[in-house]
Amino acid sequence: QVLYEVVLAVFADLFEWIKEHVSIIINLPAEYEILIEVARELPCNSRLPVLPFLSLVFNINVATKGHQDSRDLDLCLVLLISNFKEGFLAMKEPGLVVELLQGDFIVFQSTQVTHFNPHY
To answer: Bigger pLDDT: 34 or 91?
Structure first.
């Protein structure tokens, strides 16, 4: 809980920027509106740190196996925050390997795309 609160405080400006700009950045207006509608129905929705995204997960120094996020509500935002030289997000169905650097983020349909990050 303490780590979570510290991260919220440290990245408050970034999370606010995401809230204000993500609807412009992603060209998926229907999906965005669904996330906003669901967020409005949640108890304490004003405390969602990365609206319109409904959850915030920290993967610290991990490599993941290929998976789809069946519990996400369609869209997922991956934000790289770490001290590394380079990272990759691999997506099976579109056949993409996206190079990501610290501070980069990507939004994709995690319920439909098998994705993983290789060893860092």
So the answer is: 91
